[in-house]
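WARN no homologs supplied; continuing
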Amino acid sequence: MSRLGPLDEDLLSADQKSLRDSVVGTRKGLGPDVWKSGPFGVWQHAPGLGMKAVELGAQVRFATELDPQMREVAICCVGVHFKSKFEFEAHAAIAISEGIDSSYLDVLAEGGRPNWKRELMITQKFTEELLQSTRVSDSTYGTMLGLIGSKGLVELVSTIGYYCLVSLTLNAFQVGLADAMVDRWPEEI
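OK structure emitted
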């Protein structure tokens, strides 16, 4: 992490310990040091806000009815929009584990439109419209509504919004990539 370093474990407040335990408990596949990386490493400096952000993140990642591939395509679109390196790489790996071909993610990272199945094409279109214009056309809205219903739309927009928060946090504090991650946008800080 370039702008904020991890806190000394021996000096953590009760709130910071609670945040750490929550992150480690809900992101088990990422190892015990996950709370020091990504947005979690930033949020440990403001644990009250961090806890609420972690709770919302757990909700949109683990407790919605969104198709996992649609969710990860939307998240990766947010990462591309903000050129949020850590977010894109972390969620590209999750997308691959959900069955998305890595070559499609390469095309997406370059600003292209992969030859997704229909549902993922619509997800990309919806997400990009919302991010680029802060609105969604009636046509795109209606197509997505027909595909996932009103509850799904609320979950999708909330997921997109949450990952905007994550992307801006990562970019503002220049959070670096984990060792195994590829830097797709080296020209960006």
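DSSP finds eight helices and no strands in the chain.
OK
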